[in-house]
Amino acid sequence: MAPPGRVVPRKLLADELRRLRSQSGKTLEDVAAELMISTSKLSRLENGQGRPQLRDVRDLIRLYGLEGTSLAEQLRSWTRAGQEKPWWTAYSREIPDELGEHVDYEAEAAVARVYTIPAIPVLLQTAEYARAYYRSTERWRSAEEIDALVELRMKRQRALTDRPGKPPLELVAVAHETTIRQLVGSPAVMREQLDHLIERSTAPHVELRIYPFTAPPLFTFTCMYAHFEFAGDLESGFVHIENHAGFRSITTADEVAEYKGHHEELRRHALTPDESRALINSVRQQHFS
């Protein structure tokens, strides 16, 4: 089965279609009956699942009396974008759809707030660090599969530097102190990685803070997650929680807001960016020289 289209346009379209139906006072069953489609198909459309079809959106535009409006054109634009093949589908054999969705969020979000343990944040990893990490944690992978996964990680990092039509992704990363002390690959790999962290963390749109061993244990300090915030329309954003079993998505506004608060609490207890760079340099000198 072909992966669905780009995530964010589908979510934007879904949010607006739900709002329009609610505003009209119609039920899901009412609208489905008027369009002569199944309620399950309309439900998928209103939940951003699968690829939206222009004919269905055309019929909804007519039903809600939007023909000739700027909103109607916006709905069509989101529909067309939601049909586009995501760039990560070239790696769909190596990654689950949930990770593909995560990559789409990185490509579209204005801000990504991430917390990582025990690995360096993906968007700040070197290729050799990523390769060594995969070799150690996913030993069933072939060398070719690992090369493809490393290539994917390197392409994901373009969100920080090269996004046509959009400013670079703003990255606010909190990484547990474990991440800079855990030996991945070899001392040489770690030296390169820590040097890279120090350099990349000075970029104006990148904030890196180390959560030190001396900080108190907090509610979310044992799991990796990312909170994605979008400019304009998707006010609440999304949260992806990651563990060895995969991703868990959080989309309800209240829960998303809670995780944004959890991340801010981690950030408050973490070292400042300058203190973090000093610690990274100290660890490099003491353990990986």
UniProtKB/TrEMBL annotation:
Tree of life domain: Bacteria
PROSITE patterns assigned to the protein according to its UniProt record, in alphabetical order: HTH_CROC1 (PS50943)
Domain HTH cro/C1-type stretches: 17-71
Molecular-function annotations in GO: DNA binding
Protein name stated in the entry: Helix-turn-helix protein
Source organism: Prauserella shujinwangii
